[in-house]
Amino acid sequence: MFKPILTRSIAVLLVVLLSGSGQLFANTVTGENGAVASRSALASDVGVEILKQGGNAIDAAVAVGFALAVTYPSAGNIGGGGFMVVRLANGEVLAQDHREKAPLAASTDMFLDANGDVDRELSLFSLQASGVPGSVAGMLDALEKYGTMTRQEVMAPAIRLAEEGFALNADLAGDFNDTMPYFQRHEASQAIFSKNGSPYQAGDLFVQKDLAESLKRVSEQGRDGFYKGPTADMIVAEMQRNGGLISHEDLESYDVVWRTPMRGDYRGHEIWSMPPPSSGGVVLLQILNMLEPHDIGVLGWGSTRTVHLTVEALRRAYADRAEHLGDPDFYPVPVEKLISKDYARERFADMNPAAASDSEQIFAGNWNTESTETTHYSVVDADGNAVSVTTTLNGSYGNRIVVPGAGFLLNNEMDDFSAKPGAPNMYGLLGGEANKIEPGKRMLSSMTPTIVVKDGQTLLVTGSPGGSTIINTVLHVVMNVIDHGMGVEEAVAKPRFYHQWKPDVVRYETDSFSAETKAELEAMGHRGLTDSGYGYGDANSIVIRDGQIEATSDPRSVGGASAY
Ligand code: GLY
Fold it and tell me: I need a surface site. Which of 211, 417, 420, 547 has the fewest CB within 10 A?
């Protein structure tokens, strides 16, 4: 189904030409000195240029992060937040949380209407939907602590791309036009994403002068260039004009947190991922722990047993997510318990190998929702430093509101809180007390930037967008590499199936399993098996084997990998 390695230009062209026919091609490249895989070929090239200039993977990751804010504005951002997992060449692993925070004026019931129902327009498309952005603080802090280049050096490519512009591809131009009804609600948004009200076409030069100025202020002044001064003034002025909550105090007090990374072991591999306030690492490890006693490699990719076991593990782990996970600075998340092998054994003890469970009968082990438009990128350098970053505005183009004069979009991450316990968020995820809105709290995430280590060496760097499906996508890539011995292109390209406890349905990409397996799963009691086409996740990943660094951009999207 998948062609072997193609050059990027050919591969991307083929994706565009053939995606309508169901044939998709990864952009996979191999190098010995470093690589970047991201949703934007331009941003990946920026990262590799920084590596060639002598920068390390952290320098490159920061350069890619700022470049994505220019070249992939639906999710790349300076108005949002994210998580970064770093494995340094000396083996030390770090987890950086630059997730958005609820403004100090936020309140638990702020998205409930007079009937006590969640007002989704407010939680998704208003200024109140925005958490205090963390991306700029996170990128700069990582650079300062672990980078080797100056802010000016790593930000120069992003500034150039914003100031001089770049030619839009069909994917981006189409995406802007699809979102135009929302952009038209806001003068500053429409001004950026249209040509004086007319739609952009593929090939048009896309110039972002205001964004270039905002980036220059950061390049010149560091975090004060965003969290204080003209940019902060523009954010706060827009908030005050149109009912938003973010204040100067919120911006100035925003803090990056370096957290203890999640560490698990799966069949002799170290699995490193993001701890709360992301649920990603905990849920990923829970699922792997439940699956480990079963020989998935022998059971085989796409077999009835493999799909059944994986769905049953997903069902139980997502049930626990809804109950137990939230910002650990506000809620005592029982992390150690949840990721222990003993707990996995207990949790999976009621799994019937011959029949599906009923999610109505699966409760959180005794003692929440997200958007699909996040983006992930992976970076590796010649010294063995590896960086895995997932960043987001939450929904595609966040709340679709550009800060007038500042040229960037604001996130709608507040929708990742549980606005009302038991009410599903935009991804259908349920949440409770642990993830209720509180001033200064970080909303629960599913982002799962992950690094897999084998015999002391980085083997896999991966992650994905996809809201509630993120953890599942990462799980599939990890299992494909470890259990099924696949190379990075195949591991990422293979179709994925998905279950999130509630709703109790198995959704799957075309060709995730055979018609016979589908019939067997239905006979076992699995409900709502639905072919969702092809499009769960965008796992831009890197695998290192025998000194070869192989990077791939997920064929589900028009991304790009770069290596040298
Ligand atoms: N907003 C998507 C996530 O944080 O998981």
Answer: 547
